[in-house]
Design goal:
The chain has helices at residues 2-13, 23-43, 47-63, 70-97, 102-128, 144-173, 175-179, 184-192, 200-218, 221-233, 238-248, 254-259, 261-273, 279-319. It has 320 residues and is an all-alpha fold. The longest helix has 41 residues, at 279-319.
Amino acid sequence: MAKLSEMKRQLRASRKSNDTESPFDRFVHDPVALVFSRLFIRWGLHPNAVTLLSMAFGVTGGILFAWRDWRVNLAGVLLQIFAAILDCCDGQVARLTGKTSRLGRVLDGLVDGVNFAAVYVALGVRMMGENIPFTDRPWGLWIWLIVLPAALWFHAGQCRMADYYRIVHLQFLDPATAVAFTTSADLRAEAGAPDPSRPGYETLFLRFYASYTAAQERATPHLQRLLNAIRAKGSLPVEIADAYLIESRKIVQITNLLTFNLRAYTLYVLVLLGWHVWFFPFLILGLEGLKWFMIRRYEQIAARVWQGMMASARHEGELE
């Protein structure tokens, strides 16, 4: 009983927040992952090592989608699911041991992309020899005109924006962190600052992260205006944070749909049924539409909260 209570305590401590965890993760992925996380902590494994282990299983599983054999595909699905569990583990290990880092967070997102990249390449290779739906003509090299934009533009953009809104939500949960929200300008300045002790790969990482963050900022002008106002004020009033979070909680679960669960498990079902070609319309039309709906709603929220913040500032000025 004591051991079970300790595991429940660790499960709560290992979560970023209940707001941003999906029900599926809370009741399936996270409890299973905690079993492995406890082993990794006992073995002294660093969270980044767990992340790379996740990549090894995920890439191997993705490659198996190239075969036209449901048994091989099933093995690929199981390896991908195990990689997803390990992906939960790295965050759990980091939070339980206090070994969180900016590099670890970005590496975690990068590994997710690499795992799915293996899937897209495997599907592209497989579909080159398959016929275009409702015709007797094979896709050939034409399939890459669908696969490459799907991976590099649609998938990457959906995950990038979902990740950004989740980070903002988490920082508004702790008003002090919203003032210190990292911008692309901060990252470029850090990358350009001379530092003989900084390894070259870290400078490259900072430049990549700056470019990644800049793309998030360009898509969210109203949110940037709100964050800039918070930084200029030097504090985030609790009532402003609460106003944002009340609205954000209504749609924050979209971020989970766009990053892994809906995308991955739809893909697995379609691959096992041999209907994998229909994953691409689902990604390009369905998930992309969901991404723009999410951006539009969050921009509306940011605009309303900014207006409330400005009205409050004017009121305070009148009182003075």
